[in-house]
Amino acid sequence: MPSSDEQPKLPKFFDGTPPQEHSSRWTKCWEDKWTPWDRGGPSMALYDLLKENPSGAIPLPSEGSPKTCLVPGCGRGYDVLLLSSFGYDVYGLDVSSQALDAAKANAEKALAEELYKTEASKRGAVNWTCQDFFAEDWKDVQGPFDLIFDYTFFCALPPPLRPAWASRMKSLLSPGGRLICLEFPSEKGSSEPGPPWAAPPIEYLEYLSNPGAQPQTDKYGGVIAEQTQSLAPGGLKRLVHAKPERTHESGMKDGRVQDYISVWSHANE
């Protein structure tokens, strides 16, 4: 890989790589300590959602009701630590062992400096696990999960992997559980290369409403809005969809929030 002042942008680095081999490219980024997607801190959109909990849509942990959480593609684990501060027992999952080494170092520093205020009666347990999200034979991980948080994971996957992403999310979400997505980049066009690939709200809605199904797409892999399907009986339904008041700088443009945040449950609940 080139030196830091010659680093290619992510789309160029991934160009021509088959979707099934993308995990090796992400691992290479971590090995070379090149993480241009890193936000440097937790999602304030997620924090605000959990604090406000509109209509009680999100089951929060309590003294007599512990809850588990999964953050796939956790990177340095900022959101893992945030969710732990709300009392969830959290699994931070990444395909790169180097990412998890960085997460452990970040966690040690953050907790020593008390960067995360405890928002529940007690802080939840933090677990780091090096796994392939799509593998069915995870080791040392107990699922399904009461909460799953997806941010810069969906958009990191090339469109051909999105049906499998939705199917896996459904299988990992426990009965009564919630999937939270911070939708990014919501205003990018499907013709623009990734990662991150375009992730407007229609993409999440179509794939999660029909997990495992391949929707009608344009030649770039973007969902065609005029040809969407209705919610399938075995799909995930959207309970909350809103623009957060705060988000990462990458989700802003000219002082305007571009990201959306959404909450999903099983369709039969």
Automatic annotation (TrEMBL):
Region: Disordered, residue numbers: 1-24
Classification via SUPFAM superfamilies: S-adenosyl-L-methionine-dependent methyltransferases
Gene Ontology biological process: methylation
GO MF, one annotated term: S-adenosylmethionine-dependent methyltransferase activity
InterPro entries, alphabetized: SAM-dependent_MTases_sf, TPMT
CDD domains: AdoMet_MTases
Superkingdom as given in the UniProt entry: Eukaryota
Keyword field: Methyltransferase, Phosphoprotein, S-adenosyl-L-methionine, Transferase
PANTHER family: PTHR32183, THIOL METHYLTRANSFERASE 2-RELATED
Name of the protein this chain belongs to: Methyltransferase domain-containing protein
Upper lineage: Eukaryota, Fungi, Dikarya, Ascomycota, Pezizomycotina
